[in-house]
Automatic annotation (TrEMBL):
The lineage of its organism: Eukaryota, Metazoa, Chordata, Craniata, Vertebrata. It comes from the Eukaryota. InterPro entries: NCBP2-AS2 (IPR042407). The gene is NCBP2AS2. This is NCBP2 antisense 2 (head to head).
Amino acid sequence: MVLRRLLFTLLNNPRLIEKLSESRPIRVAAQVTASALTRAQLGGREAARRLLREGGLARLRETFLRELKDGARAQNWPRPPGNRRDGSGRGRGSQ
């Protein structure tokens, strides 16, 4: 609890934050983070363009829907009312 309060006080000190932001390790960490985020964003855009260009979006949709339906059938979904797994025989909204 004391450590938390001490950290809170230090991190709300504008002068300390300013000094930390000017330190080399913090600047390097910020550059690495910015670089990683930019590369991830560009990679995501390129993947989206490729999907649109190659017609993969329709294939992705079909595959997703097929897997969803197969999973639903495997779970016997949708279940008729009053047919619960726990054997209580109570459907939705029953009390």
